[in-house]
Amino acid sequence: MSSDVPEDLPDPDAQRVTPIRVEEEMEQSYIDYAMSVIVGRALPDARDGMKPVQRRILYSMHELGVTSNSGHRKSSNIVGDTMGNYHPHGDSAIYDALARMAQDFSLRYPLVDGQGNFGSVDGDPPAAMRYTEARMAPIAEEMLRDIGKDTVDFEGNYDDRLTEPEVLPAAVPNLLLNGASGIAVGMSTNIPPHNLGEVVDATIHLIDNPDCTVADLMEHVKGPDFPTGANIVGREGIHDAYTTGRGRLRVRAELEIEEEEHRIVVTELPYQENKARRIERIANDVNDGKIEGISDLRDESDREGIRVVIELKRGANPDVVRNQLLEHHLEQTFSVISLALVDGQPRVLDLKEMLEQYVGHRREVVRRRSEYELGEAEDRAHLLEGRLTALEHVESVVELIRESEDRDSAKLALQDTYDFSERQSDHIVRMQLGSLTSLEAAEIEQEYEDVTAEIERLETILGDERELLGVIKEELRGVKDTYGDDRRTSIVEDYGNVTREDLIPEEEMVVVLTEDDYVKRMPLSSFDAQHRGGKGIIGTRLKDGDRVSTVFQASTHDYLLCFTSAGQVYQLKTYELPEMGRTARGRSAVNILNLDEDERVTAIVDTDDFDEDEFLTMVTRGGYIKRTRAGEFDNILSTGIRAVRLEEGDELVDVAVTDGESDVIIGTESGMTIRFDETEARAMGRTARGVNAIKLTDENVANANVGDRRDWEGDAVVGLVCDTEGDDRDLLTVTWHGYGKRTPLSEYRTQSRYGKGLIDIKTNERNGHVVALKQVSEDDELVIMSEGGQIMRTRAGEVSQQGRNTMGVRVMRLTDDDWVASVDVFSVSGEDAAELDGSGAEEGDAKADDE
Fold this sequence. Notes:
- By secondary structure, the protein is α+β, with helices and mostly antiparallel strands.
- It has 19 helices and 41 strands.
- It folds into four domains: 50-164, Topoisomerase II, domain 5 (Alpha-Beta Complex), CATH 3.90.199.10; 254-329, Gyrase A, domain 2 (2-Layer Sandwich); 363-488, Topoisomerase, domain 3 (Orthogonal Bundle), CATH 1.10.268.10; 506-850, Neuraminidase, CATH 2.120.10.90.
- It has a four-stranded mixed β-sheet with strand order 14-9-8-17.
């Protein structure tokens, strides 16, 4: 089949095809789409602070006459008119925008006066648009004021049937007042709302001082002012947001602790917080045990405001519960991104730039309005001039009109005779006879004077920049007087983030460690005080072959230095130890302290007890003593640091805080003690071994029947006491079999270092070896724990005061296969001292045992 087109000629269809690269077409198409979303939907204009959908809704209401003075109109009517004429998108998107402009919990100054259900702070959605009604709020009319006076440019709508404003005149700085939020392609904006009075004051300050800084403006704008109130914590985030356009604000709920009712009441929530969902999450955390101390949670909110009541359990610490709520639920972060369209391009603006954009827009609006009004006034003055001339020649003018054949010839005659313009002659011909009265003439003269004065005013405004800016300031002050209100959001000082410590109640704890490195803490209140000679109660369950090595008392918030038998020292907070019940075994200390095999904690020092200028004085089982300045233990690694260098086979057994002017008393297992001035042992570095403190002998060691509990040949040091308060206190000595005594410190004379010392207590078959040496007063309390896990709490005054070289009395009743493991002392004030409940042995029984 032959073709009409010769084969050597090109295909005309192929000539119209332009080859392009796919990636280039995709890139350009995506850019076009992105800019369409950015400009046409997601980002507000920096001048009026409105997105296109918001602007079109208000303009539609303006065109429909649905102002603040009219009746409410069905929301579906407004949405349909907006969608049909200006915003060719889904009705749900338009209605969502309309509903948000009516929510007083979303906008600081709502632009729509809604009637019906427009949603709630609990996250409830608005009712369907057919059920709600709306009209413009009064402040919204300020956004459209003078829109009919050529103040802004208009553009064609989506089908060019109508025109719509590119931007609203905006007599109020809406971008800052109500803020904005939106997500575009590759960018987002999140501008918080502000207080109208503060923004107006800052705008006027900028007009008066164009060279001012952001810091100057912040003297007026204290920070965002959320419609839901609450508190902004700290000013750093505010400063960043205003100086760079980006910042992070910590917004905290307003809550009050009602001590008498033992409850916490929340009255304000962070901005954009869903109240119902937040209450549900708090309840879930309470049920899961993540938040403790709450017995009931209920929502008593009404139209007057938010009120969430949190009832506390008896004994719960309100401050701790409050901090737990703030940590997990009632403090949120608001990220500020001040992104808006400037000349159709997205820009991140600081506070001054946002206000400059608004002032520049208002300058243009006022200028265009003044030009429009000047033209109107000059046109009116022109007509009034012709009318006044006609009144001066009223009889001849009337005669001339009567003699004319028709209206057109009358106008021509007036123009020829009195030099009237065509508009003036047409106006005169159309005048009614009633306007020829003398009263009417006076009114026209007065109107002419007023119009002339208005022309002069408008010419002054257009000719003098200061006058034009003065009009802007005057109008802003009027807006402030009409719509201004008090700030709702408070700015509170930032005392740091809520830390884990804030969530832990400060409470006295008993900490137990075992030789197999199990550790736990228990509230001291779990143990009632007993008379001496009691057997105590179970303090821990031990696995086979394990035994208690150390017990000590500390507050949950104390920083502890944990010294080990290997001469290492670790630092931790008491609350970092696991809290468990009396019958629990505890948790392996390897998970908390990086202990080596066969290494155990032998001494605990509370860092609250010393200053950097004081000393940590250490003694080893082999009889060495070393003093090191406390300041050298400031920065302790998680893996611990070296506290003392030990000879092979030696162990660190005790540590005390000294002030450089005290005596130290060192005791041994065999019941010997030595007292000397601490300065006899010079201060050394952390890695030093120390010097000899006491001569250890084998005397009296074999006399004590302790079975196989000792793993040390010969005598050994068991403890160290620092006499910082003179000789007014006693030396408490406790032996392995549960006996002990108090002896005045004055009975221990001072000797030279490295002597044999004096006999403190008799270590015989009844007593066993010495296990602990403590400095006490009568009102101090003792926590004594056995190797088998029994624990007893008693007053030091329960232990008899005796002289040196005596037997002592029974302090704790033990079974035949149990021994005292550790003793700790803590001081209490008179009214805080625990009441003895008599649950231990009676005093008479204890005395019988002593005999």
